[in-house]
Amino acid sequence: MHHPACPRFRDRFARALWVPAVLLAALAASACSDNSAPSGPTAPPPTAITETFDGTLTVNGAVTQPFVVGTAGTVVVQLAALEPADAVIGVSIGTWNGVTCQIVIANDNATSGASATGNATATGNYCVRVYDVGKLTRAAGYQITLIHF
């Protein structure tokens, strides 16, 4: 005997299974979409600033040169030239308070071509210093190259 309610029951049962399956598929598809907000243009990388300082370092002397860092980043000072060529001096990088250079990184055995590298963690006043470490027997001419941001 055929019951007339059976097809309706079968249709309802099929819909009851079909609707959750479609919802599950829709949720899975939406989880894969990229909902991140569009990003704007990125800032250009900071431009390196190169400064050159030269002078004469006397026996037992020191010379400090303040400079301003506009963007945090690497600071490199290189002893580009030294005369007499066999002279040994100190080269350092530090923070400048308006009166003194508080040394942070130092190379106390610098010869021509030597360098000291540090990291300015913030914008502000810094300094580079050349000094006699007790090895000069006469005045020495120097040129330093400073690179910062």
**CATH class designation of the largest domain:** Mainly Beta
Instruction: Name the helix and strand elements from N-terminus to C-terminus, one letter apiece.
Output: HEEEEEEEE
Q: How many beta-strand runs?
A: 8
Structural class: alpha+beta
Write down the domain tally.
2
- Proportion of β residues? over 45%
The largest beta-sheet arranges its strands as 1-8-3-6
What's the helical proportion of residues?
A: 10-25%
The number of distinct helices, counting runs of at least 4 residues, comes to 1
Oligomer state equals single chain
Largest sheet: 4 strands, antiparallel
Structural features:
149 residues; alpha+beta; Jelly Rolls; 2 domains; four-stranded antiparallel β-sheet; 1 helix; 8 strands; 18% helix; elongated
Draw up the topology in text.
Layout: H1 5-31, E1 49-57, E2 62-69, E3 73-83, E4 89-96, E5 101-110, E6 115-120, E7 124-131, E8 140-148
Antiparallel strand pairs: 1-8, 2-7, 3-6, 3-8, 4-5, 4-7
What's a quick, concise take on this entry?
With 149 residues, this protein is an alpha+beta fold. The chain has one helix at residues 5-31; strands spanning 49-57, 62-69, 73-83, 89-96, 101-110, 115-120, 124-131, 140-148. A hairpin with a 4-residue loop joins strand 4 (89-96) and strand 5.
Structure description:
This protein is 18% helix and 46% strand. It starts with a helix and ends with a strand. The chain is an alpha+beta fold. The model is unreliable at 13-31 (pLDDT under 50). The longest helix is centred in the N-terminal third of the chain and has 27 residues, at 5-31. It is built from 1 helix and 8 strands; from the N terminus they run αββββββββ. It has 2 domains: 1-34; 49-148, Jelly Rolls (Sandwich), CATH 2.60.120. The strands form 2 sheets. It has a 4-stranded antiparallel beta sheet, with no helix packed on it.
